[in-house]
Design goal:
mainly alpha; Jann2411-like fold; two-stranded antiparallel ribbon; 6 helices; globular; ABATE_dom_sf; ABATE; Znf_CGNR
Length: 199
């Protein structure tokens, strides 16, 4: 994928927002909503929402074919599979077979095809550009992540009740929080209060 940066602004339904960089585009995508108790965080309500998400940096995919309801359903299925697989890896558990199968199925579809522009220095995506191709590219990125050298760096945030998952690509491998301005600062504040209470 041509993405060079990752990260999105996440919004809490109770108010507030913060920038979260999962370290991989496929993991950013996994945080666009969810099932069960995570349904309150849903951002992909209709096909146009998926088209808008794909168009944003870092992926920058402007689909030339309208996103269908079927593609939206496929996107949510892939998102759930990535979420489950990432959490399984973070917990050092055996991978969920259904999640692996869903990721493989998405990856088996035709991916985005990079295309050099006439100026010979910039790149875009070969037309026609469909949402399914972007899903295939993200599934392939997840496969590379799970089978590559950073697989052991996939982690869940160490914050209390924070399920956000990320790949720690920092050199020291010491990232613990989804974001310092969120769970990192909350941890510091709790630690400071605990020290003050001991005095």
């Amino acid at each position: 994928m041509r993405a060079s940066t990752t990260g999105r602004v996440l919004h809490d339904p109770k108010g507030g927002s913060f920038r979260f960089d999962a370290g991989a585009l496929c993991l950013d995508f996994a945080h666009t909503g969810g099932e069960g108790r995570y349904a309150v965080f849903e951002t992909l309500h209709d096909p146009s929402d998926l088209a808008e998400w794909l168009a944003h940096p870092a992926l920058g995919v402007v689909v030339t074919q309208p996103v269908t309801d079927e593609e939206l359903a496929a996107a949510k299925a892939l998102r759930q599979a990535i979420w489950i697989a990432a959490h399984d890896r973070a917990a050092d558990c055996a991978p969920d077979a259904a999640a692996v199968a869903a990721i493989n199925a998405a990856a088996a579809q035709a991916p985005l095809t990079p295309e050099l522009a006439a100026d010979g220095t910039t790149v875009g995506w070969a037309r026609p550009v469909r949402a399914g191709q972007a899903l295939s590219s993200m599934a392939r990125e997840m496969i590379d992540l799970l089978s590559g050298p950073l697989a052991h760096r996939i982690r869940e945030c160490a914050g209390d009740n924070c399920p956000l998952v990320f790949v720690d690509s920092s050199r020291p491998g010491a990232r613990r929080w989804c974001a310092m301005e969120r769970c990192g600062n909350r941890h510091k504040l709790r630690a400071r209060r605990a020290r003050q209470a001991e005095v």
